[in-house]
């Protein structure tokens, strides 16, 4: 009986895999090209297969909120008001409406609906015409189609201007990624892109064995003041 059930289950999963492959051929081909093997979205085992499974099946509306840069800032303020976030100084649908005086200072111009849509402005450079032209190209793009990142697709894409933080130079790391699984912080990746330094930390903000120890001690001390374990998703109600 068990053998029959196992065979039956394997057959069902094989059919499901075939149907998913036919339904999402581009996603699976891109997966294979990047990672070197064909995924099985019907019965995922590896980390990357599970991410692919979530792209196909998981339609949690919170993903849209957290993918939308402005909505994410509002959400974080509502669940974790003590956490400082960069100020939004202007937002709108036409970058030509950005106040001239804003672009004379040190700010960041961003699009709301995609990745790598940032212009860092310092001392009035780059020029206003360059900023407007580039931002308008962003607004014409529906981000995430190629990789099945559906949470981007419904976002209304304004452009916004944000205060520029003093990143890098042993002050603030340019990128801090805190990884959460099942509502629990597991590890964090800290990077100083300007100085080409990075570090992998455990949930208590201690360097993981074998990690690249290139983040200065000053930044590590700042991160380890309370430890990442105090930032649990459960505490801040980030886990739906």
Helix-and-strand structural type = alpha+beta
How would a textbook summarize the main sheet?
A: 4 strands, antiparallel
Q: How many beta-strand segments?
A: 7
Q: What letter string, H or E per element, gives the SSE order?
A: HHHHHEEEHEEEEH
User: Reading side by side through the largest sheet, how are the strands ordered?
Assistant: 1-4-2-3
Quote the beta fraction: 15-25%
| Total count of domains | 3
Which parts are unreliable, with pLDDT below 50 for 5 consecutive residues or more? 218-240
Number of helices: 7
Q: Averaged pLDDT, please? A: 83
Q: Specify the overall morphology.
A: globular
What proportion of the residues is helical, as a percent range? 25-40%
Distance from first to last alpha carbon: 39 Å
CA gyration radius, whole angstroms: 21 Å
